[in-house]
Each structure stands twice: as C-alpha cells, then as structure tokens.
Design goal:
Region (Disordered): 76-100
Main location: membrane
Number of helices: 3
Transmembrane segments: 35-55
Strand content: under 5%
Order of helices and strands: HHH
Subcellular location: Membrane
Membrane topology: Single-pass membrane protein
Largest sheet: none
Number of domains: 1
Helix content: over 70%
Length: 100
C-alpha cells in the first residue's frame, strides 16, 4: 500500500517538474521581457561568482595571511586583548586576578 503512495507522490513531483520546465522553455523561446530580465540577472550572478572565484584564487592567500598573522600583538596581530569593559576602565580599578 505504501509503495503505491510513494510512486504516486514521485509521479506527481516529476509531472510538476516537467510541466514547469516545459513552461520555462516556452517562455525562454518567446523571448519576452521576463526572460530578458532573467537573462540579465542570471548573467550578472554568474559573472559575479566567477569574479569572486578568480579574486579569491589571486588574493586568497594574502587575505588568509592577514587574518591569521602571527605577532606579539593581539589575536590577529592588532592591539592586545584586554577584555576591559567601559566601567572598569573608567573607574581606574586594577584588574583582579585569581590567586591560589
């Protein structure tokens, strides 16, 4: 009983996909305004992704090295991490440390 339901569901999904694709192809061949806008936006997306890919190939190591820079400074080579909030630094109190 369950097999017929699964087959029916799968058949409906395939029919829906085929009808969507046939309608899409008909619109594509009609070359109306919606298709022109879709082509422009899709080509912009593809060109942007290709540009990002090539930029990452060229500058990826530099960006990675800048992020994981080793040095005497803070976590990423910047200022040291002090973890002082505005209240502690304004009061001028020294940071309390745990002593055993």
């Amino acid at each position: 009983m369950e097999e017929s339901w699964d087959f029916e569901f799968l058949s409906r999904m395939v029919d829906s996909l085929v009808s969507f694709l046939s309608e899409f192809v008909d619109d594509w061949l009609a070359n109306d305004m919606r298709v022109a806008v879709f082509k422009i936006l899709f080509s912009w997306l593809v060109v942007s992704l290709v540009a990002i890919h090539f930029a990452w190939k060229v500058y990826g190591n530099t960006v990675n090295d800048m992020y994981y820079r080793q040095g005497t400074g803070g976590q990423n080579g910047g200022t040291p991490d002090t973890h002082l909030s505005g209240w502690e630094s304004a009061a001028g109190d020294a940071m309390k440390t745990h002593r055993e």
